[in-house]
Amino acid sequence: MLKPKYPPTQTYTAAPLVTQHVVQHAPGQEAQPQMVHVPVRTGVGGLVQSRPGTALLVVFGAIAGVLALAAVAVSLLLAVAVTAVALAVSGLVVLFLVRAVRDELHR
Known about the structure:
Elements: E1 18-22, E2 34-38, H1 43-50, H2 53-105
Antiparallel strand pairs: 1-2
């Protein structure tokens, strides 16, 4: 019927190396071009270096994530505590009812 079109398996393209020709002039010598490797900024380090406000944004984002996770954990613990109290009260009520019915039957 309909066949899906998958992307080619080799879709990764490497970042090109940036090179510069450095010419050194010495008296009486012909200048030879030299290849100089310029590091390419990638990842978080390059992003923080190129935009300083990004570091602040990453820190505040991490703090907000931790606070949200803590709120979820506290709410789960509170739900477990409320459930435990409700079961304990229900158990006591059932215990008193069973004792009351047993006392009535033995009279």
